[in-house]
Recover the amino acids of this structure.
């Protein structure tokens, strides 16, 4: 097996190889706009599809939503740029960066947890694509999960290469054609019937919970940034990609889908089903294609990330084989009828993730200033570092408690707690001064 | 610039033309049709088809190079086009 953290080899690796066990070489880096497309694809489903209907029907004024999105994304941007830059520097995915914090064996525990946690959401993506295909083609829901798996396999099989190809078609479509269609329907909506047009007066009571919602939903994606940012040529490219993806992906797509929802739904509709919204606006064919594309661009990212984590667990098998196994696994979850129980469990598990961005930032930006080398575990041959598990557990308890009490920014508090505690505890590895 | 690079550059240019055409049909002409009408469906459908083909040729032009499918080249900063042998 190649050394996971060795420098890039120029020998031919084949189309399906995603540089999963080696550093991405200079001649495989991608332009910043391409990195932004990948990240926009990841946000497309969450913000474009889910939030649009919620925001339209939530009885919140449009300026409240806009301010939550801007402030929430500014907070997230700090995490995305700092952690994304780690990927551009190391050129390896998050599962291998985790080895620097947890040690090579400790990282296996981290990656196994990640696998268990994210597989539920990845399988949900497959399920949603299947439902959308059923809605616009009428094909039996017993068959459409298989079609959905084949679509996601097609775009995730070669990792970045194939995900980029799908994004290069889908993202311009979302940002140009669908945007124009949203403007078209915007003129036809009776905005007075919707919460988006609420008068001034209800801003502050919902402000903190709104910003907390935006931050909480996406802080997990920040520590997964190295999975794509390892293909960046420089930190500057990561900053440009993250800024573009966050602000256009979340703000533009949310308002765009809110407009469709406001046109398609009546205020009496109890559930903002994205398939129903788009097919009512655009007809079964184009509405169906749009919704499948929106969810597909997110689901393939999920399976890509999962397969990268699996490689760290057992690197002798190629990533694309894990990719197929995970897709088949998600089919089994769907057909066994346990998907929603699994999602309930994954939702409970979500509280543990916010500590990870804090520890990553501490490891790469705080510890080197305190004379603790980034590669300290490797230098001292430590394969299981117990230290990060302590701040991780404490931060998870804090996030859980704050969530239960409805306090603002539980994820941010957990990340900062983990950052401080991890920095302090890791000082035992401090190099002695001259 | 080698022949392959020139061919890919031409593909990108045609892609930009197709994207513009698709935008014109799917993004602008729909303002002349009412939702749910045959013309509306035709404009969105044909516009999507032309625009998506154009965006593949403009942004995903690597798909037209055999080096990409062999895994030996991807477009990126300083290596936008494959070298001729």
């Amino acid at each position: 097996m190649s050394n996971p953290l060795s420098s890039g080899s120029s020998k031919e690796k084949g189309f399906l190889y995603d540089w999963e066990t080696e550093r991405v070489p200079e001649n495989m880096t991608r332009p910043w706009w391409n990195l932004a497309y990948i990240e926009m694809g990841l946000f497309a489903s969450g913000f474009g599809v889910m939030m649009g209907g919620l925001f339209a029907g939530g009885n919140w004024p449009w300026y409240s939503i806009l301010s939550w999105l801007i402030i929430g994304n500014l907070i997230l941007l700090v995490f995305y740029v700092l952690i994304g830059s780690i990927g551009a520097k190391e050129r390896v995915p998050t599962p291998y960066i985790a080895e620097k914090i947890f040690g090579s064996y400790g990282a296996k525990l981290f990656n196994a947890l990640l696998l268990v946690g994210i597989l539920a959401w990845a399988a949900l993506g497959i399920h949603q694509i299947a439902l959308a295909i059923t809605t616009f083609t009428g094909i039996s829901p017993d068959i459409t999960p298989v079609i959905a798996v084949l679509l996601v396999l097609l775009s995730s099989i070669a990792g970045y290469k194939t995900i980029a190809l799908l994004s290069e078609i889908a993202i311009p479509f979302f940002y140009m054609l669908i945007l124009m269609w949203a403007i078209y329907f915007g003129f036809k909506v009776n905005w007075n019937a919707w919460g988006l047009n609420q008068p001034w007066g209800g801003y502050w009571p919902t402000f903190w919970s709104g910003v907390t919602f935006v931050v909480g939903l996406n802080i997990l994606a920040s520590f997964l940034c190295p999975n794509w940012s390892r293909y960046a040529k420089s930190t500057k490219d990561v900053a440009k990609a993250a800024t573009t993806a966050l602000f256009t992906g979340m703000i533009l797509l949310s308002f765009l889908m809110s407009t469709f929802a406001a046109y398609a739904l009546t205020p009496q509709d109890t559930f903002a089903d994205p398939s129903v919204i788009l097919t009512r606006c655009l007809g079964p064919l184009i509405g169906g294609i749009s919704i499948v594309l929106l969810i597909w661009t997110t689901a393939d990212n999920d399976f890509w990330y999962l397969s990268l984590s699996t490689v760290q667990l057992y690197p002798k098998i190629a990533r694309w084989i894990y990719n197929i196994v995970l897709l088949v696994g998600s089919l089994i979850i769907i057909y066994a009828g346990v998907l929603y129980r699994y999602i309930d469990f994954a939702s409970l598990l979500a509280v543990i993730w916010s500590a990870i961005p804090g520890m990553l930032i501490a490891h790469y930006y705080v510890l080197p200033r305190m004379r603790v080398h980034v590669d300290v575990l490797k230098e001292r041959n430590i394969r299981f570092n117990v230290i990060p598990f302590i701040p991780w557990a404490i931060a998870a308890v804090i996030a859980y408690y704050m969530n239960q009490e409805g306090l603002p920014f539980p994820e941010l508090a957990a990340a900062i707690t983990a950052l401080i505690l991890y920095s302090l505890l890791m000082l035992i590895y401090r190099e002695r001064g001259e | 610039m080698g022949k392959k690079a020139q061919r890919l550059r031409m593909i990108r240019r045609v892609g930009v033309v197709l994207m513009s055409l698709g935008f014109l049909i799917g993004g602008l002409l729909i303002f002349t049709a009412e939702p749910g009408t045959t013309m509306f469906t035709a404009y969105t459908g044909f516009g999507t088809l032309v625009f998506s083909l154009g965006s593949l040729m403009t942004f995903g032009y690597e798909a037209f190079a055999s080096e990409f499918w062999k895994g030996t080249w991807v477009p990126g900063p300083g290596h936008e086009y494959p070298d001729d042998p």
User: Anything to note?
Assistant: The helical segments of chain B are 3-28, 38-59, 66-70. The mean pLDDT of chain B is 94. Chain B touches chain A through 37 residues (CB under 8 Å). DSSP finds three helices and no strands in chain B.
